[in-house]
Amino acid sequence: MFKYVIDGDIELKLLDNCHIEEQFALIQRNRSYLKQWLPWVDGIKTFGDVAKSIKISKEQYVGNDGFRCGIWYKGRMAGIIGYHNIDWSNKSTSIGYWIGEEFQKNGIMIRACKVLVDYAIKELGLNRVEIRCAEENFKSRHIPEKLGFKNEGTLRESEWLYDHYVSHIVYGILKDEWMKM
């Protein structure tokens, strides 16, 4: 099982059933904040909904098709990060993440993202990592920009988010670029 200690404060752990209540509580505390950017929030109403999500993540892990990790900061679950899927034919993946509002501005997500990019390139042997962010989500966009990803363009009105369309900025980094940093 994937587990990575980033430093004394931050740890990544593959999501498991023992994390259901903690993840649900984190979503509940941040529900209105997360709904600004994420389409799945209203679909999480019970512990069972979180359990289904974790089951899918574990199946992805077993099938070598990506996974999601909880991010723990000073012993508390702060957010989630993971690979949406892995395209082995093209040696690429995309990273998705979210963090509770109370944990922002601690550099947590940048450090967690760096670990997943490193792992994708150095351990999984992938050539390309992509991150897509809502055009207006400047906090999220800051992460790939700070990590040296290239802005590869805008997918106009690419996601229906409850009652409106959202455009996404596509960021990408290639193995050669990452290894030079």
UniProtKB/TrEMBL annotation:
Pfam families, A to Z: Acetyltransf_3
Keywords of this entry: Transferase
Domain called N-acetyltransferase: residue spans: 24-176
Transmembrane stretches, start-end: none
Presence of the UniProt keyword Oxidoreductase in the record: no
One annotated GO molecular function: protein N-terminal-serine acetyltransferase activity
GO cellular component, one term: cytoplasm
KW Transferase (keyword) present: yes
Protein name, entry field: GCN5-related N-acetyltransferase
Source organism of the structure: Clostridium scatologenes
